[in-house]
Amino acid sequence: MTFEWQPVESARIVAEGYDPDVETIYVEFPRGGVQWWYGGCTPDVWEEFTAPGQSRGQFIHQVLNGKPNGRYS
Predict the structure, then answer these.
(1) Which long-range CB contacts under 8 A does 12-18 form with residues at least 24 apart?
(2) pLDDT one-digit tens code per residue, 24-40
(3) pTM for the complete prediction?
(4) Domains of the chain, residue spans
């Protein structure tokens, strides 16, 4: 793992991270500390996901859920 969790002020998630070596976004949800990974995410996708004003929940629903994904922890 070559990423660090970054806390997020969002109603949908509490932390996020990105590993550019494997182009994977990691997300921690508030309920039960569930962590999820989303693969096939280029640096451009990470930049869109973390852009100021971007709704993390909408982005997950509209973009990330269509990518390979699964429970991380």
Answers:
(1) 12/55, 12/56, 12/57, 12/60, 13/56, 13/57, 13/60, 16/49, 16/50, 16/56, 18/46, 18/50
(2) 999 999 988 899 999 99
(3) 0.93
(4) 6-71
